[in-house]
Design goal:
Distance between the termini: 107 Å
Largest sheet: 6 strands, mixed
Number of strands: 12
Radius of gyration: 25 Å
Order of helices and strands: HEEEEEEEHHHHEEEEEHH
Number of domains: 2
Number of helices: 7
Shape: extended
CATH class of the largest domain: Mainly Beta
Helix content: 25-40%
Strand order of the largest sheet: 2-12-11-4-7-8
Length: about 250
């Protein structure tokens, strides 16, 4: 029995590793003049023994904004105009998603681990059940990814995570001006030969403040008041511009 116990202990991993992560800021305020930001993401690998030399180490970091349903429409040309044709409802798509890695994605992460943890952008988007009349639902998802990549809402940044002595790592992710308010989840994956051996996560809260918060709350909670106020401002601005023009003419 003692020999069996000894063999079992020898079979256990003797060099357990744990990823510990941090952020330069955990709260982002969206003001009237907010034009984007950049967040520094860093961390370290906590281990009880020197790093194993046989397996290649990799780090994958994702930053994910609030998920929301999205309708993707296909436009076809009819005569001289473009009209909406087929439409696909994507159940849950991140409003923002960035993936940063310490090397080529295929080298640091296996397909099995990607499927298990939904790390890449395509895995993070959830689309369940397409209408029978749509023969190519994957094209709609790819179109959504292309559109949001052009708007810097979806980012793939291979080789941008710097690793120092297989212990410390860091990267930075640019956040565009058109962020959606809510919790942004940062996930950290430590990999060996493409397999995830440790992971951690933390949250960043993005919130509108000041005038932006007031207008956002008013528009969503009291749309009638917001509409009347907007109309009054437009009328006042038009009258003011007309008065200034008459004054300059006279």
């Amino acid at each position: 029995m003692r020999w069996l116990l000894l063999l079992l202990l020898l079979a256990l991993p003797a060099r357990a590793e744990q990823v510990v992560a941090g952020l330069s800021q955990n709260r982002i305020a969206i003001t009237a003049n907010f034009d984007g930001s950049e967040i520094l993401i860093f961390g370290a690998v906590k281990r009880e023994a020197p790093p194993p030399g046989a397996a290649a180490m990799g780090v994958v970091i994702t930053l994910e904004g609030p998920k929301e349903p999205v309708t993707v429409r296909r436009k076809d040309r009819w005569a001289i105009i473009w009209v909406n044709q087929e439409a696909l409802e994507v159940d849950r798509a991140p409003s923002f998603y960035a993936v940063a890695t310490s090397g080529p994605l295929d080298d640091v992460l296996s397909d099995v681990e990607d499927l298990r943890h939904s790390i890449t952008i395509r895995r993070a988007i959830r689309s369940v059940g397409a209408p029978m009349e749509i023969a190519d639902p994957t094209n709609f998802t790819e179109a959504l990814i292309r559109i949001r990549e052009r708007a810097d809402l979806y980012q793939i940044k291979p080789g941008t995570v710097e690793i120092s002595e297989e212990t410390l790592f860091n990267t930075s992710i640019a956040l565009p001006a058109n962020l959606v308010e809510g919790n942004y989840r940062a996930r950290f994956f430590l990999t060996r030969d493409g397999a995830v051996v440790s992971q951690a996560e933390t949250l960043i809260y993005v919130q509108k403040v000041g005038l932006e918060r007031f207008l956002y709350t008013l528009a969503h909670e009291q749309p009638l008041v917001y509409g009347l106020m907007s109309l009054a401002i437009a009328i006042a601005a038009g009258w003011g511009a007309s008065a200034v023009f008459r004054y300059l003419q006279g």
